[in-house]
Design goal:
Elements: H1 3-6, E1 7-13, H2 24-30, H3 32-38, H4 46-60, E2 64-67, H5 70-75, E3 81-85, E4 99-104, E5 121-126, H6 129-136, E6 144-146, E7 167-173, H7 179-196, E8 201-205, H8 211-219, E9 221-227, H9 235-242, E10 247-250, H10 259-263, E11 281-284, H11 290-299, H12 306-313, H13 316-332
Parallel strand pairs: 1-2, 1-3, 3-4, 4-5, 5-6, 7-8, 7-9, 9-10, 10-11
Helix pairs in contact: 4-13, 9-12
Length: 337
């Protein structure tokens, strides 16, 4: 590839917030590794994971990625840029370059209804079909591009099917809202069910474990129960599938984010497993349906091929190809509204 044709300019910024006391965001800059351990998590947000995986997929496919290189962008004002992360990055955005926005930024178009009226902003990335439907109601359909992060099945997420398995059920707890109601109504009955059936289980709660511990948990688990109201991609369950661990997913079907009330939007159809088919496992909508879904998955455990699905639909190559197509198209297309 020629250099100009293979260079991708990405801009990413996370907001800094005080957590424990006023001004501690400045301390975090100096001692971020130690702070991350204190916070009981890997130290990155979901938006940062998207950014990292995008960079990985592009470099894996041979592209040169420049991060936050304002000088290069100003010197090449016709070269496209990719803007990723939190809305704060768009505040006083001054680069004249044609831009592709996302992944991330906004959960709903009502948070920035006039965003795509800026002639510099050529495309907006959404990461699943249900988000495409949501944004199509407000943004011009031709500006929306469907993209997903890629899963590295070679170096990061190997096939664990041949590993020694001593945990029957890995329960992944990502219940985000109304936990005071949903834990006793959903999580606790699943625990009791495992005990009644004589099955071994572990529970991992989102944001409360180390990355390496999750990989080890997958290697010793036969099946994962995934508990989350909805996902725009769902890296955790896809990493499990890449490890060849089948999924039993809670999929209630509706947008549960409390922001829906502030935005004044009606019911929105969603899913917790936006990339999924019969090879991956089973789903259930209510706690009452769990036993049926689990029994179906457990009796057919050896027939699932979740890793095959990931290799076909969620590869690094596919992710880079999809993003690069939208990215370089941004330099050539003019607004069609």
């Amino acid at each position: 590839m020629a250099d100009a044709d293979s260079t991708v300019l990405l801009f990413f910024q996370e907001p800094e917030r005080d957590k424990w006391f006023k001004g501690d965001r400045y301390l975090k800059r100096l001692v971020k590794p130690a702070y991350s351990r204190m916070a009981h998590k890997a130290g990155v947000t979901g938006f940062a994971v998207w950014y990292k995986l995008l960079v990985t997929s592009l470099r894996y496919s041979g592209y040169t990625v420049r991060t936050n290189d304002f000088r290069y962008a100003r010197s090449n004002p016709r070269h496209p840029v990719g803007i990723i992360g939190y809305p704060i990055i768009l505040k006083d955005w001054a680069l004249p370059n044609p831009a592709i926005l996302g992944p991330a930024l906004f959960d709903h178009p009502k948070l920035a209804p006039s965003l795509m009226e800026d002639p510099r902003f050529r495309s907006y990335i959404v990461t699943c079909e249900w988000m495409l439907d949501v944004f199509s109601d407000s943004y011009p359909r031709h500006t929306l591009k469907l993209w997903n992060a890629g899963i590295d099945t070679e170096r990061e997420w190997p096939n664990t099917a041949g590993d020694a398995k001593n945990v029957d059920i890995l329960i992944y707890d990502k219940i985000r809202w109304q936990r005071e109601r949903m834990v006793p109504e959903l999580l606790d009955p699943i625990r009791r069910f495992a005990v009644e059936q004589g099955l071994t289980y572990e529970v991992l709660r989102y944001g409360k474990y180390a990355y390496a511990d999750y990989k080890k948990a997958l290697s010793r688990s036969r099946l994962m129960v995934f508990l989350c109201e909805h996902e725009t991609q769902g890296m955790a369950y896809q990493e499990a599938m890449a490890s060849n661990v089948p999924i039993v997913a809670w999929d209630p079907g509706w947008w549960a984010d409390p922001n829906r009330l502030r935005l004044g939007v009606g019911p929105i159809r969603t899913t917790s497993v936006p990339y999924f088919d019969h090879r991956c496992g089973t789903t259930f909508r209510t706690a009452a349906e769990f036993r049926r879904a689990f029994a179906s998955a457990w009796s057919n455990l050896s027939t699932f091929r979740p890793r095959e699905f990931v290799e076909e639909r969620l590869s690094l190559e596919q992710s880079a190809r999809t993003y690069a197509s939208a990215y370089f198209e941004a330099a050539n297309r003019r607004d069609e509204c």
